[in-house]
Amino acid sequence: MYCPECGTESSDNTNFCQQCGENLKQSSELVTKTPKTGSTNGKVKCPVCHAHNPAGVSKCKYCGEWIDKSNAPYPHTLSTVLGYIFAILGGWLGLVFGLYLLRQDNKKAKLHGKIILGILGLWVLILIALAMS
Question: Which of 28, 53, 71 is the last residue in one of the domains?
Fold first, then answer.
């Protein structure tokens, strides 16, 4: 069986494409593409379901989770952008977005959350300095 999205060859008992993560069980499209070449030998263990996958795959062929989360798309783009906008404008929503990002299980999200809270901290210092003068 070949993935209808990227053409990677997969075994019949595979639920998700090893390369792009396409759900193969829900796909009704007839696949005629040829598989991609150049895969490496070896196995890599899924961090979620602990299944062994061929080396070089992006997603687990059994559960569909990312093997290496650094390759996963950043899921908090909108929250990050809105957080920066509201933090720069000095609004309380910047605090909400900053705290939201800080609580996520993603290093990039935590970093952006800290930066947003830092920007808000600067706003507080500026307001205090203006109030004292």
Answer: 71
Are residue 28 and residue 93 in the same domain, yes or no?
no
List all residues 6 or more positions away from 111 whose beta carbon is below 8 Å from its beta carbon. Answer: none
Contacts of 26 (CB under 8 A, 6+ apart): none
> What's the structural domain count of the chain?
2
Domain that holds residue 37: 1-71
pLDDT 10s digits, 8-22: 777 777 888 777 777
| pLDDT single digits (tens) 74-121 | 888 999 999 999 999 988 899 999 999 999 988 889 999 999 999 999
